[in-house]
């Protein structure tokens, strides 16, 4: 081998060696960081996340989908609380609300179509409007009297779709509403905390990437089946605002719910979320007590979206939860549950907002 070639090989080997050492050092640093996070005191380590169960039942929709649901809490309670979970999650995402509210109210929790224990359905049925119809049928089947609806993220959109398609239920059967970390629309314009140009580029390529990956959904799912440090760190950063203090057990629990949702389902519902537009449906909520909650660091359904909803519903009680993000019901359950208790007290008292009373008098 000539001296020139030996020199090139030596340089190439050095470059590869440095790169490999850099990757190894990065991986080691990441494992060290994860290790330090997991070694911190974890107050939720013994919490039975995902283990609380109610009486299982099935609601078969008008298009033949058997939706899984559970009924929990006080059977003879005069008011039922219906929980609608978010995108890629399932009814277990309401763990702390089920734990703390079940002693005083009758609870209905259900898995949205293609999520949790509810079966997969054709892509053509993956619309927010269809979810609204599903909720109407869950109420008809499982709610014997008045109820309060609580929705997180896509679950909040489901409630808005219900208001748009079945407005007569509000004020009659539905006595109150809580909208948590959700939006009336324009999710395709959110920044995700990125600079404007980068955010625009991400939104431009994401639909195509999601569509492409969905074609190999089973292969993508295999790579997602084992939890990994990247997923842990990403969810800890995006889903939780106070990432320094959030419980690793809670992060793992949320990540396991997301991981259990097939990627094809994620891809099929993605266009519906991006095209969601239900601002006009908020007027239906004028006649019932409403609570709006959002984490001040929510990058997925930004606080500005909840502020806009609060502006459209001046009588609503708005709670901006500090140092929290999109999964606020898991990250700050005490704050969320206090706001829900306040809403339930208003409903129990038959509260009508002053503005609505004035309208009625006129």
- Determine the CATH topology of the domain at 55-188 and 271-361: Rossmann fold
**Global morphology:** globular
Mean pLDDT: 79
CATH class of the domain at 55-188 and 271-361: Alpha Beta
Task: Give a written overview of the molecule.
InterPro entries: AB_hydrolase (IPR050471), AB_hydrolase_1 (IPR000073), AB_hydrolase_fold (IPR029058). This is Alpha/beta fold hydrolase. Keywords: Hydrolase. GO terms for molecular function: hydrolase activity. This protein is an alpha/beta fold and 362 residues long. It has a domain of 225 residues: 3-Layer(aba) Sandwich (Rossmann fold), CATH 3.40.50.1820. The protein contains 13 helices and eight strands. An eight-stranded mixed β-sheet has the order 1-2-4-3-5-6-7-8, sandwiched between helices. Helix 3 crosses helix 4 and helix 7 crosses helix 8. The longest helix is centred in the first third of the chain and has 37 residues. The chain starts with a helix and ends with a helix. The N terminus and C terminus are likely disordered.
